[in-house]
Amino acid sequence: MELKRVKVRRLESDSPSHIHKQLEGDLSYHDKSTKRFNFTWTQHLYFTIDDEPKGGEWCYHVASHTITKYPKGGFPKGHAFKIIATTDPKLKLEDYGVKEGHWYVASPTQAFIKKYCKVGGIDEVLVEFEDVMSETIHFDGIADFKPMVIGTKLKVDSHNTITIHPFKNSWNREEVEELCRKALNHEGYNTEFGRRIDNDNWIENNLKKY
Q1: What pLDDT, on the 0 to 100 scale, is given for residue 78?
Q2: pTM, 2 dp
Q3: What is the torsional sign of CA 33, 36, 37, 41?
Q4: What would the pLDDT profile of 151-180 be if each residue is shown by its tens digit?
Q5: CB neighbours (10 Å) of residue 47?
Q6: End-to-end alpha carbon distance in the chain
Q7: What are the extents of the domains in the chain?
Q8: pLDDT, the chain, mean
Q9: In terms of DSSP H, where are the helices of the chain?
C-alpha cells in the first residue's frame, strides 16, 4: 500500500450534489444529493494527482478551471491534472474502459464530504494506492523470481470509494521504516552488488536513530 498526495478541487456545478455553497460563502452538507435552492449553488469535488492523464481520461484543466477529457494530442505540461475520484456523477468511464464492474470514476466517502463541508474545505489529502505485483517466474527449478512490486493502482472498495487520510508533514520512526521497506522492495532497489539486501539490517545501519 502507498499513500499518494492528492489535491481536492471544488467547482460549481448544475448537477445535484450533497455540497451546497451559501450566499455568504459557507458550505452546507445535505444527506440527499439535491439541486440548488434559492441563494445556494451546488458544488462538486475533484481529486487530482500530478500524473499525466491518458487520452480520454477525465482531467482538471488549470487555465479554464474546467473538467474535460484529455485529448489525444494532450495539453502542455502542468496545464491538466488527472482526476482519480469525484463527487460528480457525470464522470463516467465508458469511453476508456471499465474496471472491476464500476461505471463511474471513484468517489470519496460521505463521511469525508460531510467533514469537508464542516471545516469549510480541505485542499490536500493522502489517498491509498495498492501495489501491482509481477508474476512469479520459474526457470526449470534453477531460478525462482518471486513477485515484485511493479507499480500501483488506486485502491477502491466494493462501493467504488477511495480511502482517504489527512495530509501530514511529519512522520514517526515506525512510519519512516515502513516507507524504507517499501522503497527497498521495489525492483531496482532491493539488490546491492548482485546480492539481495536485508531490509532490516539496511534500515538499522542507514537510518539515523533518534
Answers
A1: 85
A2: 0.74
A3: positive
A4: 888 999 988 999 999 987 677 788 777 777
A5: 27
A6: 26
A7: 2-126, 170-210
A8: 82
A9: 110-119, 173-185, 199-206
What is the residue type of 107? Answer: S
Closest listed residue to residue 44, CA positions, set 55, 33, 58:
33
Query: In 10 A of CB 19, how many CB atoms?
Result: 23
Which set of grid coordinates corresponds to residue 72? 489525444
Rounded distance, CA 13 to CA 19, Å? 10
More confident residue, 199 or 55: 55
Instruction: Determine contact, residues 6/84, Cβ cutoff 8 Å.
Output: yes
Hey, what's the cell of 161? 470509494
Averaged pLDDT, 105-119:
95
Please give the Cα distance from 75 to 79 (Å, whole number).
Answer: 6
Residue 206 corresponds to which amino acid? Answer: N
**Using CA atoms in the order 57, 134, 154, 92, what is the torsion angle rounded to 10 degrees?**
40
Q: Which residues contact 39 (CB under 8 A, 6 or more apart)?
A: 22, 23
Angstrom distance (rounded) from CA 89 to CA 98 = 15
Answer whether 102's CB lies under 8 Å from 156's CB.
yes
Angle (CA) 50 52 53, round 5°: 115
Residues 31-83 have pLDDT tens digits of: 999 998 888 899 999 999 998 888 888 999 999 999 998 888 888 888 999 99
**For residue 1, what is the enclosing H or E element?**
none
